[in-house]
């Protein structure tokens, strides 16, 4: 691993060349004069961060990169070096606690990674050595070794399939551990491979390791005596990936091409970019403010100290003579050390333990999402998944939701509905089963059927143009189909045949052909077999497969019939097929395609072409040459595809229904009610996507649609750029006027539709246009519309849209949700990425922050979990700053009464234990368990989500409210106890209290006040809350008795010896403690009473409004919302809008 990094750094072999040469079996080839074994990395997997030797320095370095930890380290060093008023233990122990807890957590996680690595690296495998199988550890596999894998074993490295136990030279694998796809994928051996691997002499030339799971380029040179080397192309269909599992195949042999950390699995686990929540940014801003307060306090006290000492007799009083060393100290050095001493004295205003508490809250809080039973889906027997816990609170701040359509809004469970052949419509639900020629009327004006020959040709195209594999089902799994997700519903007894496919579309089309008597029987040795109406078996030799590509949006097969005819069958999107067929055939099909898309069906067009001998020979040569290329293979294949897929004949089109997800409309309606703007980003056709938006209630019948598509840009007969300019300004004027008059109920709503081609013009206009101006207009139009539909989107365009909104004014919080690989880019781009465990694989789930089984679960994830998580952590952050300011303000005030002599008010034990033990557990329990509003109320009233939008509880207004409250209580603590000490004789025996008694009384009032303040804020009580709140107070009392009741031998001076006992023996102290606690909490109590009164007034208003005949529905909703919670129920609208306070239960 080190060698590979050095090679990359200093221009090693892998950096200089784009390919690698592998000797199969690590044996020299006849064409090689001198055999020098190339050096590749071993097969060890290393996912751990640390070793025994570097754990301590590396972990400490990473932890002290955090500003708060580094700050406390500096404070600790200052206490050690400079003569400060407090012991180094007071800051060193909390810092040690934080560093130790974090190190233990990270060390344990890394130990688990070491343990997992060891299990993988020590796993026994079988390798062919000199033709004989030998067992060795997985980590000892070298590139070029021939490895044997049996059924249900995982591949120990990336292998090229050389030999399979199946007769058709294929094998089936599952890649669930790589991309979550539960289907069986088919892989093929290298063509014309020798059966005797012991005598095999070959080399493999392939690309250097790269992380794309679905791309591989290489070629294999096979050497035979007295023959020229045979060259075979290698692609992803020949590559078996590490981590995949062998299924339905007894045994295979493969040669290792990538090992260890160069396997595609290892390259894909390099981690994603770190996302930061808005709460973290607020914490940093608040920390900066408190750091300024700290420095100001230190500057003020240092200045006052020297002002005090400048008076006669104060610099060197008779009872405190200076030493010779102090007299020789330079004044400015002394002032600087005093400044540092005051910084140390007041440093507890910075809450270092808050970071640990926040991390624990996020980590433990994420389990509530995983444990939520409402997220469990019995169909796939899975629940929600949390890939990162750092963004829990961000779920409560979402302003824009970007959603995919297929598989997210819809089920991706395809059902063949109808088709069109030569303009005649055929439904899937026919009354005649023995004939396909049943029509419900032609779409075109011709009143005649398409004809039996065309019908048979169409059905043959459906049976041949696909990559479906037939799985002969066993007695326990009869008729089960496998796509990229859970098995679909079993077929009827007449259709007891299972299919393995990469897309549910292909299964639906094959099943559709089966309903009309054309059955696909499978692929055997490059021969495709189908059974026709007469139950005759037709055989076609599969010559080439022109794979589907999201850019081409079509796929083709080239087959040869028994009669010798060479046919090309092609299916794909209408926009991809229509330009490649005869123009006169398009109009017969276009009307059907448009009508089916309007009804919400997914449509595909089907075409064919007879290839002459010369045409096929040219295509075959071009394909073979392109597949052998190591450089630009995909571009060369694309050129051949485009050349052969021309001048085709259009046969017809299919319509497949993709039904809406369960509760999709209710979920979208709830999200819009919560104030979120929903954008649909899809690669589907506009008509289909528009119908889905209407079905999901994103568009309503009263919504006026603004359309910016290729059709509208070309409708004016002018250049596209000119039309784009005019349409953008016209749409902006309409949407802006709608936004300005949004208060009016009669104001029309606007929806915006844009396609990929129009978006490309907006994002990348011609050089003579204003790019930024177009983007600004486009964004403003989108933001002023109720919903936006972006159709015909490429994956990168989806990410462009998300990035444009994310970086717009105000930096709104964005969320992307999708289920397929084409959604990964927008999921990674958004602030929060949600993956749906759908049927298009698990790439989206792997790259997401959270994963849910179905779209309907997004409603509770955001409206309930997101809402509560945000309130909890916002309260946690504000509470930490509040209680630390309460803690340190009396210490600051005390300096005015001790001549700024740096005399501490509290004992060192109290300074150390305050944040660690006395006040940490109650706020942690609160931040995990608090429910200010019941979950049912949050789900029923989506508008409650708006009250916490835009980081409402962590703005400067609430922060100022908490700061003023802390200052008020700090003043009460200090001056209330000072008033008590106006009569120093507080005990019956006339003994007076000293300064440590003063500080202990202040600290007692402080601990009880901040803890009871949290108790007042708690609305959802559990036994855990009771235990930690009352237990913390009891622990403080017990600790104080214990700490002051024993003479500790390790202490040079014991300041609190029997101080706590004497304090509690005074009735005056008891009275003042209780009185100050009540007085400090009085504002919260009064506000609570006033809020309850205001809530009752709102309930009365609600009843009166509901009795009125002409009461506005919107006003009834508002009154209902205000009666169910009181975040916005004001004592004074102006005050509480500026200073929000916690909720109160009704």
From TrEMBL:
It is found in: Cell membrane; Early endosome; Endoplasmic reticulum membrane; Membrane. Residues 38-91 form the P-type ATPase N-terminal domain. InterPro entries: ATPase_P-typ_cyto_dom_N, ATPase_P-typ_P_site, ATPase_P-typ_TM_dom_sf, ATPase_P-typ_transduc_dom_A_sf, ATPase_P-type_domA, HAD-like_sf, HAD_sf, P-type_ATPase_IV. Mg(2+) binds at residues 404, 406, 819, 823. It catalyses: a 1,2-diacyl-sn-glycero-3-phospho-L-serine(out) + ATP + H2O = a 1,2-diacyl-sn-glycero-3-phospho-L-serine(in) + ADP + phosphate + H(+); a 1,2-diacyl-sn-glycero-3-phosphoethanolamine(out) + ATP + H2O = a 1,2-diacyl-sn-glycero-3-phosphoethanolamine(in) + ADP + phosphate + H(+); ATP + H2O + phospholipidSide 1 = ADP + phosphate + phospholipidSide 2. PROSITE patterns: ATPASE_E1_E2. Its EC number is 7.6.2.1. GO terms for cellular component: early endosome; endoplasmic reticulum membrane; plasma membrane; recycling endosome. The chain crosses the membrane at residues 64-82, 285-308, 339-358, 959-981, 996-1016, 1028-1051, 1057-1082. It is a multi-pass membrane protein. The active site is at residue 404. GO terms for biological process: phospholipid translocation. Its cofactor is Mg(2+). ATP binds at residues 404-406, 506, 548, 571, 602, 682-684, 792, 798, 822-823. Residues 845-1092 form the P-type ATPase C-terminal domain. Residues 123-264 form the P-type ATPase A domain. Belongs to the cation transport ATPase (P-type) (TC 3.A.3) family. Type IV subfamily. This is Phospholipid-transporting ATPase.
């Amino acid at each position: 691993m080190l060698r590979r990094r050095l090679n990359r750094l200093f221009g090693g072999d892998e950096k200089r060349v784009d390919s690698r040469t592998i000797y199969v079996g690590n044996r020299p080839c006849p064409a090689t004069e001198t055999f020098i074994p190339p050096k590749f990395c071993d097969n060890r997997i290393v996912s751990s961060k640390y070793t025994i030797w570097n754990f301590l320095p590396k972990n400490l370095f990473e932890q002290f990169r955090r500003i708060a930890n580094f700050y406390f380290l500096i404070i600790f060093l200052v206490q050690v070096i400079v003569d400060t008023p407090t012991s180094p233990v007071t800051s060193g122990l909390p810092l040690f606690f934080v560093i130790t807890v974090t190190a233990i957590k990270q060390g344990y996680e890394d130990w688990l990674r070491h343990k997992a690595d060891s299990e993988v690296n020590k796993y026994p495998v079988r390798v062919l050595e000199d033709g004989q199988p030998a067992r060795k550890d997985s980590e000892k596999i070298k590139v070029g070794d021939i490895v044997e894998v049996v059924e249900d074993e995982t591949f120990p490295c990336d292998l090229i399939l050389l030999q399979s136990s199946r007769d058709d030279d294929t094998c089936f694998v599952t890649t669930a551990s790589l991309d979550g796809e539960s289907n069986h994928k088919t892989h093929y051996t290298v063509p014309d491979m020798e059966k005797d691997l012991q005598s095999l002499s070959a080399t493999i030339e392939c690309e250097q390791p790269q992380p794309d799971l679905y791309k591989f380029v290489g070629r294999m040179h096979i050497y035979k005596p007295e023959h020229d080397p045979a060259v075979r192309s290698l692609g992803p269909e020949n590559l078996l990936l590490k981590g995949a599992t062998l299924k339905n195949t007894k045994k295979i042999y493969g040669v290792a091409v990538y090992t260890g950390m160069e396997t595609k699995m290892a390259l894909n686990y390099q981690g994603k970019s770190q996302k930061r929540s808005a709460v973290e940014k607020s914490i940093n801003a608040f920390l900066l403010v408190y750091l300024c307060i700290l420095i100001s306090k230190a500057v003020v006290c240092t200045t006052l100290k020297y002002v005090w000492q400048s008076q006669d007799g104060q610099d060197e009083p008779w009872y405190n003579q200076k030493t010779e060393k102090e007299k020789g100290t330079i004044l400015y050095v002394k002032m600087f050390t005093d400044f540092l001493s005051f910084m140390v004295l007041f440093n507890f205003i910075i809450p270092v333990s808050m970071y640990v508490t926040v991390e624990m809250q996020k980590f433990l809080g994420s389990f509530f999402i995983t444990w939520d039973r409402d997220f469990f889906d019995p169909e796939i027997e899975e629940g929600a998944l949390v890939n990162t816990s750092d963004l829990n609170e961000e779920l409560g701040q979402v302003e824009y939701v970007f959603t995919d359509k297929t598989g997210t809004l819809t089920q991706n469970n395809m059902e063949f509905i109808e088709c069109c052949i030569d303009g005649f419509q055929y439904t899937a639900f026919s009354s005649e089963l023995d004939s396909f020629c049943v029509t419900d009327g032609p779409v075109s004006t011709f009143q005649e059927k398409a004809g039996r020959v065309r019908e048979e040709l169409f059905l043959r195209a459906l049976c041949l143009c696909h990559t479906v594999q037939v799985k002969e089902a066993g007695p326990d799994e009869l008729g089960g189909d496998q796509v990229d997700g859970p098995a679909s519903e079993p077929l009827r007894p007449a259709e007891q045949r299972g299919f393995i496919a990469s897309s549910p579309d292909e299964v639906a089309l094959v099943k559709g052909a089966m309903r009309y008597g054309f059955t696909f029987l499978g692929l055997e040795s490059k021969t495709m077999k189908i059974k026709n109406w007469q139950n005759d078996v037709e055989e076609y030799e599969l010559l080439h497969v022109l794979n589907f590509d999201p850019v081409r949006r079509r796929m083709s097969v080239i087959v040869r019939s028994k009669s010798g005819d060479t046919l090309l069958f092609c299916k794909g999107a209408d926009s991809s097929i229509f330009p490649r067929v005869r123009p006169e055939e398009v109009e017969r099909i276009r009307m059907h395609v448009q009508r089916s898309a309007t009804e919400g069906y997914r449509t595909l067009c089907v075409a064919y072409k007879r290839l002459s001998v010369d045409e096929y020979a040219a295509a075959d040569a071009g394909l073979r040459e392109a597949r052998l290329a190591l450089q630009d293979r995909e571009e060369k294949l694309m050129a051949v595809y485009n050349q052969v897929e021309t001048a085709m004949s259009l046969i017809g089109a299919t319509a497949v229904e993709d039904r809406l997800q369960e509760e999709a409309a209710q979920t979208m309606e709830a999200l819009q009610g919560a104030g979120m703007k929903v954008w649909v980003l899809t690669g589907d056709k506009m008509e289909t996507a528009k119908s889905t938006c209407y079905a999901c209630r994103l568009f309503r019948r009263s919504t006026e649609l603004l359309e910016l598509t290729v059709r509208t840009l070309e409708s004016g007969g002018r250049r596209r750029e000119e039309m784009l300019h005019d349409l953008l300004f016209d749409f902006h004027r309409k949407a802006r006027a709608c936004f300005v008059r949004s208060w009016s109920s009669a104001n029309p709503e606007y929806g915006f539709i844009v396609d990929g081609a129009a978006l490309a013009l907006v994002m990348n206009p011609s050089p003579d246009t204003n790019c930024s101006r177009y983007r600004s207009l486009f964004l403003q139009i989108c933001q002023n519309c109720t919903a936006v539909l972006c159709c015909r989107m490429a994956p990168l365009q989806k990410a462009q849209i998300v990035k444009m909104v994310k970086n717009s004014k105000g930096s709104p919080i964005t969320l992307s949700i999708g289920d397929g690989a084409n959604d990964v880019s927008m999921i990674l781009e958004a602030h929060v990425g949600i993956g749906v465990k759908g049927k298009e694989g698990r790439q989206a789930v792997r790259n997401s922050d959270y994963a849910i089984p179905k779209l309907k679960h997004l409603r509770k994830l955001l409206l309930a979990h997101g809402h509560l998580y945000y309130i909890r952590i916002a309260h946690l952050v504000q509470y930490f700053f509040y209680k630390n300011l309460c803690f340190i303000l009396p210490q600051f005030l005390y300096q005015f009464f001790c001549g700024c002599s740096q005399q501490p008010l509290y004992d060192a034990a109290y300074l150390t234990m305050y944040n660690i033990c006395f006040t940490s557990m109650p706020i942690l329990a609160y931040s995990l368990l608090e429910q200010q509003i019941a979950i049912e109320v949050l789900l029923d009233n989506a508008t409650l989500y708006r009250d916490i939008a835009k980081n409402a509880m962590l703005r400067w207004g609430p922060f100022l409210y908490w700061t003023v409250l802390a200052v008020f209580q700090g003043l009460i603590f200090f001056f209330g106890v000072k008033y008590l000490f106006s009569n120093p004789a507080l005990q019956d025996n006339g003994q007076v209290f000293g300064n440590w008694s003063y500080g202990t009384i202040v600290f007692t009032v402080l601990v009880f006040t901040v803890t009871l303040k949290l108790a007042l804020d708690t609305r959802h009580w559990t036994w855990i809350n009771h235990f930690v709140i009352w237990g913390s107070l009891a622990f403080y009392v017990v600790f104080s008795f214990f700490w002051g009741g024993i003479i500790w031998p390790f202490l040079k001076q014991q300041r609190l010896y029997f101080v706590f006992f004497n304090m509690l023996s005074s009735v005056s102290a008891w009275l003042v403690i209780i009185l100050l606690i009540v007085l400090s909490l009085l504002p919260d109590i009064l506000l609570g009473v006033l809020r309850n009164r205001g809530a009752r007034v709102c309930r009365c208003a609600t009843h009166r409004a509901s009795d009125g005949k002409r009461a506005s529905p919107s006003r009834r909703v508002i009154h209902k919302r205000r009666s169910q919670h009181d975040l916005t129920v004001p004592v004074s609208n102006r005050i509480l809008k500026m200073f929000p306070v916690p909720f109160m239960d009704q």
